[in-house]
Write a structure and sequence with these properties.
By secondary structure, this protein is an alpha+beta fold. The protein has 16 helices and ten strands.
């Protein structure tokens, strides 16, 4: 599992301190309320054999070291960001998904593997439903994809439709106006074939940067080459929007952290800023780009570890999935109090299934 590089060195913990920290985190995640020493002594008497006073002293030490916080003088403790980070890195076990969860993910993903938009929507819905948080899915950047073939389809009124097929099953279509209106199909086919000879096998970013040199010598009476040169920014650019999919908000609305209308509104307004969320997810994905194993590709950002201050009240768990030579991201966003082990298992399994399904079928963007 990937850990943010900027994570500060943490004070070393004894076995007892690790045990108490683990129990505090698990209890707080379960109840959403401060955890007291008496509660731990009663619920884990046989496991740890410590008195409430001994547990209280250990919790006080953990608070002094920055792992726990005490909201009120008479209240129990809650984990801090550092407490959650230590739990995720050192104390957490990642459970296997239940047979029902695995079956649901596999069945739904396999049903709609041919439709990328629906695949992203369904993945985010499933992640939200199974985690009770907000599921998110981000399709790959087209500009990083390799052009497999270009098609030019004449339409009425002097318009033509360009269809860019990207390796891995992605596609982009755009309709442009063409001045010439007496194009012959054979001429269109000839110039399309020549364009494919010059451009296929390159990424869209490479085409956008070098297309003039590659096509300038083509003899063309249709006006298509001129259109490719003049409208390259539109043809080979990243779509302005539409890469991001969210699951329904109803699941996360049930979390205690969002019972206050103002807190929920602030969260939803933040999620409505597509550019902001895409930046968060891509920034997180960059940290796992060269991960050696699927487990290392799961990235957990907790609270203040998020790159933007506006997101520092939340945790984000993501993993990349492969689509040809490009990659997208799936994940879950929620409060810092979440079942990290279960969420990591869900995100990792979903990303793995998306990669496997996409490798055996094409998806249309």
């Amino acid at each position: 599992m990937s850990t943010p590089e900027h994570t500060d060195a943490r004070p070393a913990l004894s076995d007892r301190e690790e045990t108490i920290l683990q129990m505090v985190v698990q209890n707080f995640v379960s109840t959403a309320g401060p955890v007291g020493s008496r509660t731990l002594a009663k619920e884990h008497e046989q496991e740890i054999g410590l008195s409430a006073a001994s547990i209280r002293n250990t919790m006080s030490d953990l608070e002094d070291m920055g792992y726990l916080d005490q909201p009120h003088t008479s209240a129990g403790r809650v984990p801090t960001g550092m407490g959650y980070r230590t739990f995720v890195d050192e104390l957490m076990s990642v459970p296997s998904l239940s047979p029902d969860e695995r079956h649901m993910l596999h069945l739904k993903i396999r049903e709609i593997v041919g439709d990328l938009r629906e695949l992203m929507s369904e993945s985010s819905r499933l992640l939200g439903r199974l985690s009770s948080l907000l599921g998110v899915a981000l399709s790959p950047r087209l500009s990083t994809g390799t052009l497999d073939r270009l098609e030019v389809v004449p339409l009425t009124g002097g318009r033509v439709m360009f269809v860019l097929s990207i390796e891995g099953g992605l596609a982009k279509t755009i309709v442009l106006e063409l001045e010439a209106s007496d194009m012959q199909r054979r001429d269109i086919d000839r110039i399309t074939r020549l364009l494919n000879e010059r451009l296929a096998g390159l990424t869209l970013r490479e085409i956008r940067d070098t297309h003039v040199e590659r096509v300038r010598d083509l003899q063309d009476e249709t006006g298509i080459v001129r259109l490719v040169v003049e409208r390259s920014d539109s043809l080979f650019s990243e779509p302005a929007a539409g890469r991001l999919r969210f699951g329904p908000a109803q699941h996360i609305m049930a979390q205690p952290e969002f019972q206050e209308t103002g807190d929920l509104r602030a969260f939803m307004e933040l999620m409505e800023d597509e550019d902001f969320v895409v930046h968060l997810l891509e920034d997180q994905a960059a940290e796992t780009e060269h991960a050696a194993s699927p487990q290392d590709q799961v990235n957990v950002r907790i609270g203040s570890e998020n790159s933007d201050e506006k997101a520092q009240e939340y945790s984000i768990v993501t993993a990349p999935y492969a689509l040809g030579k490009t990659s997208g991201t799936v994940g879950v966003i929620g409060p810092t109090r979440m079942e990290y082990g279960h969420v990591v298992a869900l995100v990792q399994s979903t990303a793995s299934m998306l990669s496997s399904a996409s490798s055996s079928d094409d998806a249309t963007a």
